[in-house]
Predict the 3D structure of the following.
Amino acid sequence: MDSISRLLTVPVPRYTSYPTAPHFHTGIKAAEYCEWLGALPVDKPLSLYFHIPFCDTLCWFCGCHMTVVNGYAPVREYRALLLDEIELVAAALKKRHAVCHIHWGGGSPTILSADDIARLNEKTRINFDVLREADFAVEIDPRGLSPDTVLALKTAGVTRASLGLQDCDPVVQRAINRVQTIEETTCAVSMLRDAGIASLNLDLIYGLPHQTPASWERTLDFALSLSPDRLAVFGYAHVPQFKKHQALIRQETLPDMDLRFQLAELARQVLCAHGYVAIGLDHFAKSHDSLARAAASGTVSRNFQGYTTDSAPSLIGMGASAIGSLPQGYVQNVTGVPAYRDAINAGRLPVARGVALQGEDRVRRDIIERLMCDLRVDLNAIAAGYHLTPAVFSASLEQISPLAERGIVKICDGTIIISPAWRSAVRLVCAAFDQYLPRKTARHSMAV
């Protein structure tokens, strides 16, 4: 595994977008974003993402934009600002658009009071035509989840809950400052199911301090006992140079690359042995779940929330640090709540940066998305769709030839196929098609 470890110890993006977030720039202003919104066709549904950047404790592994609060006043004030941003976005759109997908992320969206959950939902439905069949997902911290919150989510129309589990071993939990008992998680799952929110996801993380194959298998067994519809099994990205609080996790307690790879493979083997379908890099779903069906038909998509069945051509992000994806490019809001407050109170879309798609961005984005979602891509078909010759990818194919020599990928008649046993290396294959990567490789996490 030594040579494999060296291969995988390469910093590459997670490819939730292309170009990736480190290449966003401040040249995209609120006025340009407003023009992009106004140009969106009214006959195409939208996807909406709302960011709630608050938690009541700090998990040391966290890589999200969030703030720890000790009282509810900052959350209440932020909720009012978010309602104002909804109106700013709706005004820029000019017409009332249909919405087929809603996602609340954080932070911890369940830090919102039941009343504020209702207010946010009501404002959304006033300004957008939320379709009856819309998928409405909310990220949930099981710790302290109350029956009132669950009822408010159900009343709002939430169809899917994504619960953070990470790892159930007490030693690991203490090392990441997230103590969450089995009883708390089990109770949260029961409350959600009793309320009729039947579609449940669990988020797990490998690569955390003190994890061993034995402890990780116990976490997987507990997760399976809850019978979730989907699981996301993420690799921990230790980047204390960007997230200072991660320095509280001692480097020497983290699994090395060989063990990280072993933990990732153990998750795949255990979950697939229990009937889950492996999807893309790190998601798993029951065979009857809509995500598994989309994988079977080649229609899975990938965005900033991970793998999804969301087919909307535009995702509008609202809230501090939220990222949107539109046909013209990407846009990200200011990350800090004070700057967000200033922009909203000035009646201005709170744009901080973004990037307009140009040149070969769209074709390379399509290639990377198909690789990330399907572990295969037909370069000839994509080239033909953009009126290009396959020769444009010759440098990328040369770059992945060492992976082909190792059996990680197979290249046949213009089609790249990644071996299912090597799905952990998919980001390395994608990186060969990334024209921006050579400039800033160090900002990314390891391939596995």
Q: What stands out?
A: The chain has two domains: 11-356, 361-435. The chain is about 35% helix and 20% strand.
